[in-house]
What we know:
binds magnesium ion; ATPase_NBD; tRNA N6-adenosine threonylcarbamoyltransferase; 352 residues; cytoplasm; binds fe (iii) ion
Amino acid sequence: PLVLGIETSCDETGIGIVRGRTLLSNTIASSMDEHARYGGVVPEVAARAHLEALQPALETALAESGVALADVDAVAVTSGPGLAGALMVGVGAAKSLAVSLGKPLYAVNHLVGHIAADILDAEAPPLEYPTVALLVSGGHTSLLLVRDLTGDVEMLGETMDDAAGEAFDKVARLLGLPYPGGPEIDRAAATGDPDAIRFPRGLSRASDMAKHRYDFSFSGLKTAVARWVEQREAAGAEIPVADVAASFREAVVDVLVTKALAACRDYDVPRLLLGGGVIANRRLRDVALERAAEQGVTVRIPPLSLCTDNGAMIAALASELIMSGRMPSTLQFGADSTLPVTEIQVAADAED
Ligand code: ATP
Ligand code: MG
Ligand code: FE
């Protein structure tokens, strides 16, 4: 099927067009620059930016893919989770587009979309089930057991406080680096020593592992970095930014990879799929690949352009739903800012 996907859950306005599992266009307009001076995404600003960016992004995507709007078989949209006001812009646009074209609408889960990005990887062999999936983004850090992308996603664990990307952004800020912090920390860490400072690995002690084996916690780590920096400053010493960045990044990566591979071992699943914007982190990918290989686990990493928020992953998920015979969504749905990852599609029409 030829599917047009709309994504507006955060600060990226994404329009993606896919045919089956083939990517035809992935157009993204970001309002990131408008948020940078506030040090984080401002919901009101993001919603307004989506309103302005949607139409031009749609035109670009159609032109790029050589597709006429009338030829689209279905429209897909992110209904959650995300910023309510931002989501509403995409949901409204998708509904009117679907109604005016007379085409089915698939309202899907943004987080499952991050995983679905993987199936657009033309170079990769088909996705095998079950697979453990580690989803690390600006707002989420979840460990999932995916038995079927279109019908069975189980949540094994998630962060109890900050998301990994959020931790990167906060630590970058306290090191005086600009927003978004992930790429900045990555850059600063390149010349640093990851073993310079031993920062805490959240929920990794034996007692924590009993109850929170697949859960994450990054706020203690963030506080530890803040305290370390404060003590240095109080002593009038210079802050070794590269070493702090490298040691912090190592702590995050260590926990993420250790817990993901523990899930692979426990569930006897030799497959690990990585998804979300934080996958852009070179060190995370390297450590995951290295340690997974030692354990006989195959790692799948979608193309990085599909790891951050985009409309193509939303179209891909809907395309997958259509190919497995799922009914479209009814128009009785709205934006759900806290949609759980287990709800792959919302307002699915009852099959009879
Ligand atoms: P969610 O999907 O949970 O709603 P989001 O869509 O805002 O959140 P993404 O776009 O998937 O998140 O990812 C953005 C996050 O990725 C930011 O927190 C950013 O700092 C982080 N990030 C980007 N590049 C890197 C990198 N190289 N290293 C670490 N983090 C990174
Ligand atoms: Mg974003
Ligand atoms: Fe996202």
